[in-house]
UniProtKB/TrEMBL annotation:
Family: Belongs to the KdpA family.
Compartments it resides in: Cell membrane
Gene Ontology CC: one annotated term: plasma membrane
Cross-referenced PANTHER family: POTASSIUM-TRANSPORTING ATPASE A CHAIN, POTASSIUM-TRANSPORTING ATPASE POTASSIUM-BINDING SUBUNIT
Name recorded for this polypeptide: Potassium-transporting ATPase potassium-binding subunit
GO molecular function, one term: potassium ion binding
Membrane-topology annotation of the record: Multi-pass membrane protein
Description of how the protein assembles with itself and partners: The system is composed of three essential subunits: KdpA, KdpB and KdpC.
Top-level taxon: Bacteria
Main location: membrane
Biological classification of the source: Bacteria, Bacillati, Cyanobacteriota, Cyanophyceae, Nostocales
Key word Disulfide bond present: no
Coiled-coil residues: none
Amino acid sequence: MANIFLGERTILDPIMNPVERTIYVLGGVGKQEDMTGWQYIRAVISSNLVMGIIVYALLYYQKFLPGNPNGLVTIKWDLLLHTTISFLTNTDQQHYLGENSFSYFSQTAALGFLMFTSAATGLAVGIAFIRGLTGRKLGNFYVDVTRAITRILLPISVIGAIALLALGVPQTLAGTLVVQTLEGGTQYIPRGPVASFEIIKMLGENGGGFFGANSAHPFENPNGASNLIETIAMICIPSSLIYTYGVFANNLKQTWLLFWMVFIIFVILVWITASGELQGNPIVNNNLAIEMPNLEGKEERFGWALTSLWAVITTATMCGAVNGMHDSLMPQGIFSTLFNMFLQIVWGGQGTGTAYLFIYLILTVFVTGLMVGRTPEFLGRKIEKREIVLASIVLLIHPIVVLIPSAIALAYPISLSGISNPGFHGISQVVYEYASAAANNGSGLEGLNDNTLWWNISSSISILVGRYVPIISIVLLADSMSHKQQVPETRGTLRTDSLIFTSITAGVTLILGVLTFFPVLALGPIAEGLKLASGS
């Protein structure tokens, strides 16, 4: 990725250079035209707006378009709006059943199209942010998006789709299969072009399933081998972006320190989740007088262990795909998944997650700089008021669009929130939905009555604000850093590539994240865990 976005030679140059030149000519894009911060932002917003309008129209008129062998009609307007916004922003939060709502053409040409462009948009913004931090110009958004698709997302998706097809994931335009059961009944088995849809869903951190059961469905994830491929696809780009930054900054030492910081937090969350699932529900175990793991909501072909690992990875990478029902996780698992979506840095979303990691790094530089009485510096550039204001906006907008609508919904538990589980778990259901929306994750604690006018509109607002306000702030921060003169390093310069500073960064990150969201964690999964432990 570093070679691609630094403009260096890659093995795909002979194939993709002519393709990209054609795209630039047709789009009127000058490959060498660097954008300012506001130009980059306008390009992001305008392109996303146009794509959103086109996809909304395609979904609205799907009954008149080809690729609809099952004769599906248009869904209601608020659900259609929510779906369009959700896929446009790389959230893919689904309040519908895919096999019963959208045609093959809609799933492929509309939603599948947005899976590529939304992932590429996030990746482009992340690269622009890295360029700005390292003193480079931001680049050209249209060039970055094009290269993200042609050089990264599309080639890997082709290989991955073929691998999934070989493992049993269907890829067909034939309609629903009607079969006679052994009892003489009739069974309707939905299918479609799933393999191509599935791989970009995982690779692009999209998470929206072709079927309502998502990756717990045997046609999306039939066996352990497909589960492994999809797990690797989910985590490969976000984790690699940390190393990409190191190449840009020519500081691999700091890269590896940050990588291991994130990895340690990730492993701890996996351990917390897995230990809860292995221990099982104490009330159920006491009633049955046996010790068994929590198998509720699990697919037998994956079990408690692979479901625990997947649950942490899918919320850590902001993918949102599920291979088991998160609503059935023990409180420890719900704690870990919520914690991931609150922090958004383990491993973070497509491109923007890496930006969040360095936002926390910049705040740590600011705090430690104040402690020692020096003007904070990062990569030889001074951190001043403008950078701190923009970084604060990025971190503060998330709790605003999670906690405020959650409070409104919980104030009306019957009319608005649609909670199916009373008590502490119901609080987790509501907060999880908005955290998932604002973090552009898309997973949910099913059981919530979320396909209503309130949920479709309110979660759409959280999705939009949670996506575009941070993007605007991130790009402006990067633009500001790119114009700063580099300050010569002295004996008093605070080095950010040391173990001590990385440990402080971890502490600041955890303190800011936990203090902001601790009340809802205490009222949700922590309280539920204590209640289960007490046997009540």
